[in-house]
């Protein structure tokens, strides 16, 4: 089966990991510090906080944004459900707002209609790697006294109007799961231009340790053994073993991006001009880091096309089932029909294989199978 996504690991990655294993620091060491500098470099931020997954990054970001009981978080249903569920862990209530018909990203007008004086965060996802409309969403969030969070699990290395993903929103999260744009096996990161927020993120992922002595509540010399915990935290520390893999992968990020763009261009060319198909939208000013190739089939035969491709050995996926359709949300009063644009998008969508080591002949085989299926 041709997978829909997979990591690209080479001998230099294996060497980088082995070098850490031969050294003194398996965790909280220099490879982690280097990886955080590298991620901050890509994001254009003063710092980065590496964590154990994209989900941990979201939880850490909501905690660092001081989301708490009674708050509302406005988010998209066309995402992996962790974008929403991590805010629930902080006690927030989720309000789903609909997406734009072209990109599948959170629609600023829908978000504006959904915010209230209880909204603490507006959270958009860079669906498939295409950046959210950050300027419009920032205005919606800030007008409501809220922060904009960008779930950039799909889009590290992308940019909008020349500004890198990571510098577009108040706080941005990444995932380094194997299918994503670069991998640390499991891993993620939080970036922001707000140093106080980064400080809270860094304490949260380290079980709430307050390292900065100037912030200690206790006054005077408490002894060399002293430490403080002022807020709740969890252990979401990314080990150096994995951070080293991340830093080495980052050296190939540009190459990964070029190849993902080339695969996208090849699919676009091969599937263009067919009435029942919609190739992914690409807005002016956006320089996406294509993580997925989300094709839409408009004639109601998504199920048949999906089964046909799977039976032909093509590992297609659907990204995503609308989050509010999940039983957890359905059992709490969220209803089908609440976000019709996202729901229609989801019912038409099929993610074709997309990863840097995908061969042109495999792309052509997928195109041929799709064209045959729709009779083009
Ligand atoms: C993958 C993903 C996550 C979660 O990342 P993990 O590293 O798998 O925990 C969150 N949001 C989106 C949009 C994702 O695609």
UniProtKB/TrEMBL annotation:
Keyword Zinc: no
SUPFAM superfamilies assigned: PLP-dependent transferases (SSF53383)
InterPro entries referenced in this protein's UniProt entry, alphabetically: DegT/StrS_aminotransferase, PyrdxlP-dep_Trfase, PyrdxlP-dep_Trfase_major, PyrdxlP-dep_Trfase_small
Cofactor: pyridoxal 5'-phosphate
Gene Ontology MF term list: transaminase activity
Family: Belongs to the DegT/DnrJ/EryC1 family.
Listed name of the protein: Aminotransferase class V-fold PLP-dependent enzyme
Organism name: Luteipulveratus flavus
